[in-house]
Design brief:
Elements: E1 2-6, H1 10-22, H2 24-28, E2 33-38, E3 42-44, H3 48-53, E4 63-65, E5 75-78, E6 81-85, E7 90-93, E8 98-100, E9 103-106, E10 110-112, H4 120-123, H5 130-142, E11 146-152, H6 161-176, E12 182-187, H7 197-210, E13 213-215, E14 220-224, E15 229-232, E16 237-239, E17 242-246, E18 249-251, H8 253-257, E19 281-283, H9 296-316, E20 327-332, E21 338-343, H10 356-373
Parallel strand pairs: 1-2, 1-9, 2-5, 9-19, 11-12, 11-17, 12-13
Antiparallel strand pairs: 3-4, 6-7, 7-8, 10-18, 14-15, 15-16, 20-21
Helix pairs in contact: 1-9
Protein backbone atom coordinates (compact mmCIF):
# COMPACT_ATOMS: atom_id res chain seq x y z
CA UNK A 1 0.00 0.00 0.00
CA UNK A 2 1.64 3.21 -1.19
CA UNK A 3 0.54 6.19 0.90
CA UNK A 4 1.57 9.59 -0.43
CA UNK A 5 1.25 12.74 1.69
CA UNK A 6 1.64 16.08 -0.08
CA UNK A 7 2.45 18.90 2.32
CA UNK A 8 4.54 19.04 5.48
CA UNK A 9 2.52 21.38 7.67
CA UNK A 10 0.58 20.49 10.80
CA UNK A 11 -2.00 18.23 9.15
CA UNK A 12 0.36 16.37 6.84
CA UNK A 13 2.96 15.80 9.54
CA UNK A 14 0.46 14.42 12.05
CA UNK A 15 -1.10 12.10 9.45
CA UNK A 16 2.35 10.79 8.49
CA UNK A 17 3.57 10.17 12.04
CA UNK A 18 0.29 8.71 13.24
CA UNK A 19 0.19 6.33 10.28
CA UNK A 20 3.85 5.36 10.69
CA UNK A 21 3.14 4.12 14.20
CA UNK A 22 -0.17 2.43 13.36
CA UNK A 23 1.38 0.66 10.37
CA UNK A 24 4.80 -0.10 11.83
CA UNK A 25 4.43 -3.84 11.22
CA UNK A 26 3.16 -3.34 7.66
CA UNK A 27 6.05 -0.97 6.93
CA UNK A 28 8.62 -3.44 8.30
CA UNK A 29 7.18 -6.23 6.14
CA UNK A 30 6.98 -3.87 3.13
CA UNK A 31 3.22 -4.13 2.88
CA UNK A 32 2.95 -0.37 3.35
CA UNK A 33 5.10 2.62 2.46
CA UNK A 34 4.64 6.25 3.51
CA UNK A 35 6.14 9.07 1.44
CA UNK A 36 5.90 12.79 2.15
CA UNK A 37 6.55 15.49 -0.45
CA UNK A 38 7.01 19.03 0.85
CA UNK A 39 7.90 22.42 -0.58
CA UNK A 40 10.33 23.13 2.28
CA UNK A 41 12.79 21.38 4.57
CA UNK A 42 11.58 23.66 7.39
CA UNK A 43 8.41 23.44 9.48
CA UNK A 44 7.00 26.72 10.82
CA UNK A 45 4.90 27.16 13.95
CA UNK A 46 2.52 29.62 12.33
CA UNK A 47 0.69 30.86 15.48
CA UNK A 48 4.06 32.22 16.62
CA UNK A 49 3.93 34.93 13.96
CA UNK A 50 1.59 37.07 16.08
CA UNK A 51 4.06 36.80 18.99
CA UNK A 52 6.85 37.77 16.60
CA UNK A 53 4.94 40.93 15.64
CA UNK A 54 4.95 42.01 19.30
CA UNK A 55 8.53 41.02 20.12
CA UNK A 56 7.50 38.04 22.22
CA UNK A 57 9.25 35.49 20.00
CA UNK A 58 12.26 35.54 17.70
CA UNK A 59 12.25 34.05 14.19
CA UNK A 60 14.43 31.06 15.10
CA UNK A 61 11.85 29.94 17.66
CA UNK A 62 9.31 29.41 14.88
CA UNK A 63 11.16 26.69 12.97
CA UNK A 64 12.32 23.08 13.16
CA UNK A 65 13.84 20.88 10.48
CA UNK A 66 10.94 18.97 8.97
CA UNK A 67 12.90 15.72 8.79
CA UNK A 68 13.52 15.87 12.55
CA UNK A 69 9.74 15.83 13.19
CA UNK A 70 9.09 12.66 11.18
CA UNK A 71 9.25 9.01 12.15
CA UNK A 72 12.34 7.39 10.65
CA UNK A 73 10.26 5.02 8.51
CA UNK A 74 8.74 7.92 6.53
CA UNK A 75 10.35 8.66 3.16
CA UNK A 76 10.74 12.45 2.93
CA UNK A 77 11.53 14.56 -0.14
CA UNK A 78 11.67 18.33 -0.56
CA UNK A 79 10.11 18.36 -4.00
CA UNK A 80 6.74 20.13 -4.32
CA UNK A 81 4.00 18.63 -6.45
CA UNK A 82 3.05 20.51 -9.60
CA UNK A 83 0.72 18.06 -11.35
CA UNK A 84 -2.02 15.91 -9.85
CA UNK A 85 -3.19 13.00 -12.01
CA UNK A 86 -6.05 11.92 -9.78
CA UNK A 87 -7.64 9.50 -12.25
CA UNK A 88 -4.29 7.82 -12.99
CA UNK A 89 -3.26 7.88 -9.28
CA UNK A 90 0.07 9.64 -9.53
CA UNK A 91 1.61 13.10 -9.09
CA UNK A 92 4.49 14.85 -10.81
CA UNK A 93 6.88 17.02 -8.80
CA UNK A 94 8.87 20.14 -9.63
CA UNK A 95 11.92 17.99 -10.34
CA UNK A 96 9.92 16.01 -12.87
CA UNK A 97 9.67 12.84 -10.79
CA UNK A 98 6.53 10.74 -10.87
CA UNK A 99 5.12 9.32 -7.62
CA UNK A 100 2.44 6.64 -7.85
CA UNK A 101 0.11 6.05 -4.92
CA UNK A 102 -2.73 3.92 -3.69
CA UNK A 103 -3.87 6.52 -1.14
CA UNK A 104 -3.21 10.25 -1.44
CA UNK A 105 -3.41 12.80 1.39
CA UNK A 106 -3.41 16.44 0.27
CA UNK A 107 -2.24 18.82 3.00
CA UNK A 108 -0.95 21.78 1.01
CA UNK A 109 -2.37 24.52 3.24
CA UNK A 110 -3.28 28.06 2.24
CA UNK A 111 -1.60 31.34 1.33
CA UNK A 112 -2.34 35.01 1.82
CA UNK A 113 -3.78 36.87 -1.16
CA UNK A 114 -3.63 40.60 -0.34
CA UNK A 115 -3.41 41.41 -4.06
CA UNK A 116 -7.12 40.54 -4.32
CA UNK A 117 -7.80 43.94 -2.74
CA UNK A 118 -6.37 46.96 -4.59
CA UNK A 119 -3.74 48.74 -2.53
CA UNK A 120 -3.59 46.24 0.33
CA UNK A 121 -0.14 44.92 -0.56
CA UNK A 122 1.31 48.43 -0.64
CA UNK A 123 -0.74 50.11 2.07
CA UNK A 124 -1.26 47.56 4.83
CA UNK A 125 0.89 45.63 7.28
CA UNK A 126 0.18 42.11 8.43
CA UNK A 127 1.78 39.30 10.44
CA UNK A 128 1.06 36.22 8.32
CA UNK A 129 4.66 35.81 7.14
CA UNK A 130 7.95 36.09 9.00
CA UNK A 131 8.99 39.10 6.93
CA UNK A 132 5.71 40.97 7.42
CA UNK A 133 5.59 40.21 11.16
CA UNK A 134 9.08 41.64 11.69
CA UNK A 135 8.19 44.71 9.62
CA UNK A 136 5.05 45.24 11.72
CA UNK A 137 7.02 44.85 14.96
CA UNK A 138 9.42 47.61 13.87
CA UNK A 139 6.52 49.91 12.97
CA UNK A 140 4.79 49.30 16.31
CA UNK A 141 8.01 50.15 18.17
CA UNK A 142 8.24 53.45 16.27
CA UNK A 143 4.54 54.30 16.59
CA UNK A 144 4.02 57.27 18.92
CA UNK A 145 0.33 57.94 18.45
CA UNK A 146 -2.52 58.18 15.97
CA UNK A 147 -5.09 55.85 14.47
CA UNK A 148 -4.47 52.16 13.94
CA UNK A 149 -7.09 50.62 11.68
CA UNK A 150 -7.64 46.85 11.55
CA UNK A 151 -9.38 45.38 8.51
CA UNK A 152 -10.33 41.76 7.81
CA UNK A 153 -10.43 39.96 4.47
CA UNK A 154 -12.28 36.67 3.98
CA UNK A 155 -11.72 33.84 4.09
CA UNK A 156 -8.67 33.89 6.34
CA UNK A 157 -6.60 31.54 8.44
CA UNK A 158 -7.25 31.52 12.19
CA UNK A 159 -10.59 33.32 12.63
CA UNK A 160 -9.65 34.33 16.19
CA UNK A 161 -6.57 36.26 15.00
CA UNK A 162 -8.31 39.66 14.55
CA UNK A 163 -9.61 39.55 18.11
CA UNK A 164 -6.22 38.50 19.50
CA UNK A 165 -4.60 41.35 17.58
CA UNK A 166 -6.88 43.89 19.25
CA UNK A 167 -6.08 42.62 22.77
CA UNK A 168 -2.36 42.53 21.99
CA UNK A 169 -2.33 46.07 20.63
CA UNK A 170 -4.19 47.35 23.68
CA UNK A 171 -1.71 45.76 26.08
CA UNK A 172 1.32 46.71 24.01
CA UNK A 173 0.56 50.41 24.05
CA UNK A 174 -0.53 50.34 27.70
CA UNK A 175 2.87 48.94 28.62
CA UNK A 176 4.56 51.62 26.54
CA UNK A 177 2.53 54.23 28.42
CA UNK A 178 0.94 55.76 25.32
CA UNK A 179 -2.38 53.93 25.09
CA UNK A 180 -4.21 57.26 25.47
CA UNK A 181 -2.47 58.51 22.33
CA UNK A 182 -3.51 55.51 20.21
CA UNK A 183 -6.96 55.19 18.66
CA UNK A 184 -7.70 51.60 17.62
CA UNK A 185 -10.50 51.05 15.13
CA UNK A 186 -11.58 47.52 14.21
CA UNK A 187 -13.51 46.70 11.04
CA UNK A 188 -15.30 43.42 10.37
CA UNK A 189 -17.09 42.27 7.18
CA UNK A 190 -20.37 40.97 8.69
CA UNK A 191 -22.97 42.49 11.00
CA UNK A 192 -21.18 41.62 14.27
CA UNK A 193 -17.56 41.81 15.39
CA UNK A 194 -16.83 38.11 14.80
CA UNK A 195 -18.21 35.41 12.55
CA UNK A 196 -18.77 33.05 15.51
CA UNK A 197 -21.74 34.50 17.36
CA UNK A 198 -20.64 33.45 20.85
CA UNK A 199 -17.19 34.93 20.28
CA UNK A 200 -18.79 38.19 19.11
CA UNK A 201 -21.08 38.29 22.14
CA UNK A 202 -18.13 37.76 24.47
CA UNK A 203 -15.73 40.14 22.69
CA UNK A 204 -18.05 43.16 22.31
CA UNK A 205 -18.07 44.21 25.99
CA UNK A 206 -14.31 43.52 26.13
CA UNK A 207 -13.79 45.90 23.20
CA UNK A 208 -15.98 48.47 24.93
CA UNK A 209 -13.94 48.11 28.14
CA UNK A 210 -10.69 48.71 26.24
CA UNK A 211 -12.07 51.69 24.33
CA UNK A 212 -11.91 50.03 20.92
CA UNK A 213 -14.00 51.59 18.17
CA UNK A 214 -15.53 49.07 15.81
CA UNK A 215 -17.41 49.15 12.54
CA UNK A 216 -19.23 46.10 11.22
CA UNK A 217 -20.38 45.41 7.66
CA UNK A 218 -17.05 46.77 6.42
CA UNK A 219 -15.86 44.76 3.42
CA UNK A 220 -12.63 46.23 2.13
CA UNK A 221 -12.91 47.58 -1.42
CA UNK A 222 -9.52 49.25 -1.67
CA UNK A 223 -6.65 50.75 0.27
CA UNK A 224 -5.57 54.24 -0.78
CA UNK A 225 -1.95 54.03 0.34
CA UNK A 226 -1.08 57.56 -0.82
CA UNK A 227 -3.73 59.21 1.32
CA UNK A 228 -3.81 56.60 4.13
CA UNK A 229 -7.49 55.80 3.68
CA UNK A 230 -9.19 52.39 3.56
CA UNK A 231 -12.56 52.21 1.79
CA UNK A 232 -15.40 49.70 2.08
CA UNK A 233 -17.77 48.22 -0.47
CA UNK A 234 -20.55 49.61 1.70
CA UNK A 235 -19.40 53.18 0.93
CA UNK A 236 -17.64 54.11 4.18
CA UNK A 237 -13.98 54.91 4.71
CA UNK A 238 -11.47 55.25 7.53
CA UNK A 239 -8.34 57.39 7.65
CA UNK A 240 -5.41 55.78 9.42
CA UNK A 241 -1.83 56.28 10.45
CA UNK A 242 -1.13 52.54 10.50
CA UNK A 243 -3.26 49.92 8.76
CA UNK A 244 -3.05 46.28 9.88
CA UNK A 245 -4.81 43.79 7.62
CA UNK A 246 -5.90 40.23 8.07
CA UNK A 247 -5.52 39.50 4.34
CA UNK A 248 -7.87 37.22 2.43
CA UNK A 249 -6.52 33.73 1.87
CA UNK A 250 -6.59 31.24 -1.00
CA UNK A 251 -5.60 27.63 -1.31
CA UNK A 252 -2.34 26.87 -3.08
CA UNK A 253 -1.98 27.76 -6.74
CA UNK A 254 -1.23 24.17 -7.78
CA UNK A 255 -4.59 23.00 -6.45
CA UNK A 256 -6.47 25.51 -8.57
CA UNK A 257 -4.19 24.98 -11.61
CA UNK A 258 -5.02 21.26 -11.53
CA UNK A 259 -8.77 21.97 -11.28
CA UNK A 260 -9.06 20.30 -7.89
CA UNK A 261 -10.99 23.16 -6.31
CA UNK A 262 -12.04 26.76 -6.87
CA UNK A 263 -9.61 29.25 -5.28
CA UNK A 264 -7.51 26.27 -4.19
CA UNK A 265 -10.10 24.84 -1.76
CA UNK A 266 -10.80 21.16 -2.43
CA UNK A 267 -14.44 20.01 -2.06
CA UNK A 268 -14.27 17.61 0.89
CA UNK A 269 -16.77 15.40 2.66
CA UNK A 270 -17.27 16.94 6.10
CA UNK A 271 -17.21 13.61 7.95
CA UNK A 272 -14.99 11.20 5.99
CA UNK A 273 -12.55 13.95 4.87
CA UNK A 274 -12.39 12.30 1.47
CA UNK A 275 -12.25 14.49 -1.61
CA UNK A 276 -15.72 14.61 -3.11
CA UNK A 277 -16.16 11.75 -5.57
CA UNK A 278 -13.00 9.88 -4.51
CA UNK A 279 -12.37 7.02 -2.10
CA UNK A 280 -8.57 7.23 -2.35
CA UNK A 281 -7.87 10.95 -1.80
CA UNK A 282 -8.08 12.54 1.65
CA UNK A 283 -7.88 16.28 2.31
CA UNK A 284 -6.70 17.80 5.59
CA UNK A 285 -6.36 21.24 7.15
CA UNK A 286 -6.61 24.54 5.30
CA UNK A 287 -6.85 22.78 1.92
CA UNK A 288 -10.44 21.67 2.54
CA UNK A 289 -13.54 23.72 1.76
CA UNK A 290 -15.12 22.66 5.06
CA UNK A 291 -17.12 25.14 7.18
CA UNK A 292 -14.63 24.92 10.06
CA UNK A 293 -11.85 27.23 11.19
CA UNK A 294 -8.65 27.11 9.20
CA UNK A 295 -6.45 26.46 12.22
CA UNK A 296 -3.78 24.06 13.37
CA UNK A 297 -6.19 22.48 15.84
CA UNK A 298 -8.74 21.67 13.12
CA UNK A 299 -5.93 20.17 11.04
CA UNK A 300 -4.81 18.16 14.09
CA UNK A 301 -8.21 16.63 14.76
CA UNK A 302 -8.80 15.96 11.07
CA UNK A 303 -5.37 14.33 10.73
CA UNK A 304 -6.08 11.89 13.56
CA UNK A 305 -9.32 10.79 11.88
CA UNK A 306 -7.64 10.37 8.49
CA UNK A 307 -4.71 8.37 9.88
CA UNK A 308 -6.94 6.06 11.90
CA UNK A 309 -9.21 5.47 8.90
CA UNK A 310 -6.41 4.76 6.43
CA UNK A 311 -4.86 2.30 8.88
CA UNK A 312 -8.17 0.59 9.57
CA UNK A 313 -8.94 0.30 5.85
CA UNK A 314 -5.58 -1.42 5.38
CA UNK A 315 -6.06 -3.70 8.39
CA UNK A 316 -9.83 -4.34 8.29
CA UNK A 317 -11.09 -3.06 4.96
CA UNK A 318 -13.26 -0.29 6.40
CA UNK A 319 -12.93 3.15 8.05
CA UNK A 320 -13.87 3.46 11.72
CA UNK A 321 -14.26 7.18 12.49
CA UNK A 322 -16.00 10.33 11.32
CA UNK A 323 -14.74 13.87 11.83
CA UNK A 324 -17.22 15.86 13.92
CA UNK A 325 -15.91 19.35 13.13
CA UNK A 326 -13.96 19.66 16.39
CA UNK A 327 -11.84 22.78 16.82
CA UNK A 328 -10.00 24.07 19.90
CA UNK A 329 -8.65 27.62 19.76
CA UNK A 330 -6.69 29.51 22.37
CA UNK A 331 -7.60 33.20 22.48
CA UNK A 332 -4.91 35.53 23.78
CA UNK A 333 -6.62 38.39 25.61
CA UNK A 334 -3.50 40.46 26.12
CA UNK A 335 0.06 39.70 27.09
CA UNK A 336 -0.77 37.90 30.33
CA UNK A 337 -4.26 36.40 30.01
CA UNK A 338 -6.11 34.06 27.67
CA UNK A 339 -9.27 32.02 27.21
CA UNK A 340 -10.27 29.36 24.72
CA UNK A 341 -13.04 28.33 22.34
CA UNK A 342 -13.92 24.68 21.73
CA UNK A 343 -16.67 23.75 19.28
CA UNK A 344 -17.74 21.34 16.57
CA UNK A 345 -20.37 21.04 13.83
CA UNK A 346 -23.21 20.81 16.34
CA UNK A 347 -22.01 22.74 19.39
CA UNK A 348 -21.02 26.43 19.40
CA UNK A 349 -18.19 27.58 21.69
CA UNK A 350 -18.91 28.48 25.29
CA UNK A 351 -16.16 30.89 26.31
CA UNK A 352 -14.83 31.15 29.84
CA UNK A 353 -13.47 34.25 31.55
CA UNK A 354 -9.87 35.01 30.57
CA UNK A 355 -7.24 34.02 33.11
CA UNK A 356 -3.49 34.10 33.65
CA UNK A 357 -3.22 30.27 34.03
CA UNK A 358 -4.81 29.81 30.60
CA UNK A 359 -2.27 32.25 29.17
CA UNK A 360 0.58 30.21 30.61
CA UNK A 361 -1.00 27.04 29.27
CA UNK A 362 -1.02 28.67 25.84
CA UNK A 363 2.62 29.69 26.24
CA UNK A 364 3.49 26.13 27.24
CA UNK A 365 1.69 24.82 24.18
CA UNK A 366 3.94 26.98 22.01
CA UNK A 367 6.69 24.54 23.03
CA UNK A 368 4.47 21.46 23.21
CA UNK A 369 3.48 22.01 19.57
CA UNK A 370 6.59 20.20 18.39
CA UNK A 371 5.55 17.14 20.37
CA UNK A 372 2.02 17.52 19.02
CA UNK A 373 3.04 17.36 15.34
CA UNK A 374 5.06 14.26 16.13
CA UNK A 375 1.64 12.80 16.94
CA UNK A 376 2.62 12.20 20.56
CA UNK A 377 0.19 14.64 22.13
Amino acid sequence: MRILIVGGGTGGTIVANNLARRLSKEIRTRKARITMLSASDQHMYQPGLLYLAFGQMTPDELYRDQASLLESSIIFHVDPVEEYKIEEKYVVTKSGKRHNYDVLVIATGSRIAPAQIPGMTEGADTFYTEESAIKLFKKLREFEGGTIAIVVGVPHKCPIAPVELVFSLNDYFKKRGIRDKVHIKYHYPIGRIHTIENVATWAKPEFDRMGIEYETLFNVEEVDAENNVVKSLEGTETAYDLLIAIPPHCGMEEIEANNLGEDGWIPTDRHSLLMDGRDDVYVVGDTTNLPVSKTGSAAHFEAEVIAENIASVIKMGTPVRDYDGKVYCFIETGHDSATYAMFDYKNPPDLTNPSKPMHWFKMAYNQMYWTSVRGLL
